[in-house]
């Protein structure tokens, strides 16, 4: 028999949200490489088709996680692993944040994330599955930062949800954790990191001296989804190069 750290995710079905690019794309591919059948959720059918063409174990599911009817349908699926990845950020000084921006980020980063996690939990409880739920949060769910009041608020909320779900669902054998990345080179962060002054600030804040890659985050997700993390629940795995250790 293979050692626990090498058993992979064969026979598992993983649902990953926000998969058409960036972190979600890398996570979906990594889980598929680890043996899971991956249900890839995003609003962009073309992006999903391109992703599915890269791995035979990835099935595209076009849908919007802010659509309650779509999310309700997820509970009827057989989900063993959820990666709650869909989210957004619109950095602005607090005094300039519009109500529409506040509502957009609360709706996607908190409300939709909660309802998707709820749907996955219902699937696992219905089937008696000892599953894994992984919320993608951020180092900003552990610290504060100027221009990111709304983003920090939503990610702190998701960290709290992770802990509460972990305690509640542990008796059913369902593990709930978060992965909290630093600035990762993705299409969402590209405009921010294109500013030389901001890029310099980020580099100086990360003791390892570099921004992260999507594969850095995907590796953490595969670990938390796998049997190697069988005794890990209610925690946040910081993939931040040491940012929050300062």
TrEMBL record:
Keywords: NADP
GO molecular-function term, one example from the UniProt record: L-xylulose reductase (NADPH) activity
Domain of life, source organism: Bacteria
Gene3D superfamilies (alphabetical): NAD(P)-binding Rossmann-like Domain
PROSITE patterns: ADH_SHORT
GO biological-process terms attached to the record: glucose metabolic process; xylulose metabolic process
SUPFAM superfamilies linked: NAD(P)-binding Rossmann-fold domains (SSF51735)
This protein's record includes keyword NADP: yes
Pfam hit, one: adh_short_C2
Subunit text: Homotetramer.
Family under the similarity heading: Belongs to the short-chain dehydrogenases/reductases (SDR) family.
Name of this chain's protein: 3-oxoacyl-ACP reductase
Species name: Sandarakinorhabdus cyanobacteriorum
Organism placement in taxonomy: Bacteria, Pseudomonadati, Pseudomonadota, Alphaproteobacteria, Sphingomonadales
């Amino acid at each position: 028999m293979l050692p626990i750290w090498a058993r992979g995710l064969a026979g598992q079905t993983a649902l990953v949200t926000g998969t058409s690019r960036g972190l979600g794309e890398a996570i979906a591919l990594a889980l598929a490489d680890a043996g899971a059948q991956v249900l890839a959720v995003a609003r962009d059918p073309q992006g999903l088709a391109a992703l599915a063409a890269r791995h035979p174990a990835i099935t595209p599911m076009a849908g919007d996680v802010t659509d309650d009817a779509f999310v309700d349908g997820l509970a009827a699926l057989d989900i063993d692993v959820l990666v709650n990845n869909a989210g957004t950020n619109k950095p602005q000084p607090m005094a300039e944040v519009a109500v529409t921006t506040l509502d957009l980020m609360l709706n996607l980063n908190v409300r939709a994330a909660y309802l998707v996690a709820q749907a996955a939990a219902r699937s696992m409880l219905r089937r008696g599955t000892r599953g894994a739920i992984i919320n993608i949060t951020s180092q900003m769910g552990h610290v504060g930062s100027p221009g990111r009041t709304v983003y920090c608020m939503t990610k702190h909320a998701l960290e709290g949800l992770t802990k509460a779900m972990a305690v509640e669902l542990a008796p059913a054998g369902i593990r709930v954790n978060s992965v909290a990345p630093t600035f990762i080179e993705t299409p969402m962060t590209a405009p921010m990191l294109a500013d030389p002054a901001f890029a310099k600030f980020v580099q100086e804040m990360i003791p390892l001296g570099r921004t992260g890659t999507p594969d850095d985050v995907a590796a953490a997700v595969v670990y938390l989804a796998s049997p190697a993390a069988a005794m890990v629940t209610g925690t946040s795995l910081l993939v931040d190069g040491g940012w929050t250790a300062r």
